[in-house]
Structures are given as C-alpha cells and as structure tokens.
Specification:
alpha/beta, eight-stranded mixed sheet, six-stranded mixed sheet, 9 helices
Length: 293
C-alpha cells in the first residue's frame, strides 16, 4: 500500500471533520492508498490553514518523510504563494515526490518545477474526497497514482502540432507568478490554463498581462480547460467573447480540455512532463513522471 500525506498548504476547509477525512481515506483505500495527516490540518489563521511556518513545515516534512510516497493538498483557496520564498528547494529536490493539487496549489507546483524540477499532478484536491468521488475522476485518479496517464482527448481551437514541457494550471495563480523567481521559463513549452468565477474584465486583464509579458509569443502550444466555470450565463457569454478575442492573436496550436475544470472536473494532468499536442489525432500525449512513487 502506498502512503499519501494529506497537507493544507493554502486555505483551510471550514468546519472540516474527521468523519469527512474518513470518507476520503476509505475511498483511497480502495485503490491501495493509505492517507496520513496531522492535526495541523484543522488549524485556522485568517483564511489560511494556520500560520505560514506551520504550513511550510507540513509541506517540507511530507517531502522529507521516507515513508511518504506522494503528497495531496487538501484544498486551494489562497496562501500557497506565501510559502514560495521560504521553501528549501535543494532539500526537497533530494526527496522528489509528486504533489497532487489544483487551483491555488498551481503556485507551488510551478515553483517546485522551476526550482527543483519536481513534477506534480493538477486537477484533484483532498477535499474532493470528503464526499463521493465521481467514477470518472476516481478512474483518472487511479491512473495518476499509478503513473499511467498517457493521452487525453482534446478539442481543436487552432490546428497544429506542438511539444514541450506541460506547465501552468489556474490562470489567476499562474499570472501572479509573473515577475517572481518562481515563474517557469515558458519558451517552447506548453501552457495549461483554467479559471473559475472570474468576470470578463478580470479575465481580460490577466490574459493581457500574459500577452504583454511575452508568454503567448514564446509557448509552443496552449491548452485551455474550463475558463468560465461557475459564472452566471450572462457573465459567461461575455467572458467567452473576451477569451475568443484573445485567442485570435495567439499563433501556436490551441486545444481545449473542458473537463479540466473547477466545476465537475474529471481530468487530472501531470505538470513538468514532456507533452505533445496533435490536432490531427485530437489527443494530448503525455510522458510519465520520472521520479515516481
């Protein structure tokens, strides 16, 4: 049985109970995964799961524990970026293991790749397992935990072929890395983006920021998850028009994976692996993680 350490490096889950964690543990036991956690999971400080020092220690201890095979973030929210300049990346690089997360955990996953070449998985959080995990997501989680994600169906927005390292995740969090030492080099790599609950004007601002920073000029390919999740229909329509306007000037191949989403998400993707977009075959092809559990 493999061991996963459950940590909360960002926001806490309000009113989290041990019964809810028991639901997560029982589901993962079905695929031969044992979930471990400490009582620090229940700490609260403003909107974070405890003070920075506590969350940092939980993260680093999970990497340094020889009995831990992988790490799972409880939820996103906010707070991951506060840890980036405090992490001992050299120490973590020597104890390489995958970090599962989504949303705000994008900051940690891309920083870990930039500073230590640690690969990870995006699309699943521990809080998803406090209720019944949907069959498709459960199937894809099992594939990820066994390092067997090899190809994902795509929908073509702009035709072509591209290869490179797959990086990115949540648009808001990824954009916040611009101008910091923790933004990965995107030259000739593939950018993955998704967003939630973000009105059109904010979507426009962030996409413009990526444009002005030269990101869209340098990437080899772009993958879009659900960019308008959890918006009202009227707000969603305008956001889609803004997105279409931005996609018009991006020259590289662009594909969509709608089920990589904050709303009823079903897809888990590796971060930091070699990937290939092929719109002739409508698939994203993915290498396996190198240093795996």
């Amino acid at each position: 049985m493999k061991n996963i350490q459950l940590i909360a490096p960002a926001s806490y889950v309000p009113n989290l109970t041990k019964n809810e964690l028991s639901t997560l543990k029982k589901q993962l036991e079905q695929i031969d995964i044992k979930v471990n956690y400490t009582d620090n999971l229940f700490k609260e400080k403003f909107f974070w799961a405890g003070e920075d020092k506590i969350r940092l220690n939980e993260l680093e201890n999970a990497f340094l524990n020889d009995d831990t095979d992988a790490i799972l973030a409880l939820r996103g929210g906010e707070g991951s970026m506060r840890l980036l300049d405090k992490i001992d990346y050299h120490k973590l690089k020597k104890n390489n293991k995958p970090l599962f997360g989504f949303s705000d955990i994008t900051a940690l996953q891309n920083a870990l790749w930039k500073k230590a070449k640690i690969q990870s998985f995006t699309g699943f959080l521990g809080c998803y397992g406090t209720k019944k995990i949907t069959p498709t997501l459960f199937k894809n989680l099992k594939l990820a935990l066994n390092n067997k994600i090899e190809q994902i169906p795509t929908k073509t927005i702009k035709s072509g072929k591209a290869d490179g390292i797959l990086l990115g995740g949540n648009l808001t969090t990824f954009t916040a890395l611009l101008g910091t030492p923790y933004m990965p080099k995107m030259n000739n790599n593939i950018l993955l983006l998704e967003e939630t609950s973000t009105p059109a004007y904010r979507l426009d601002r962030m996409l413009t920021q990526l444009k002005l920073a030269g990101i869209f000029d340098n990437i080899s390919g772009l993958i879009l998850g659900d960019m308008t999740a959890n918006l009202k229909p009227s707000d969603k329509k305008l956001a889609q028009l803004i997105l279409k306007d931005h996609l018009s000037y991006i020259k590289c191949p662009i594909v969509k994976i709608p089920k990589y989403s904050h709303k009823n998400g079903q897809i888990i993707l590796p971060i930091g692996v070699k990937a290939k977009i092929d719109t002739d075959k409508n698939y994203l092809y993915l290498d396996k993680l190198k240093n795996f559990i």
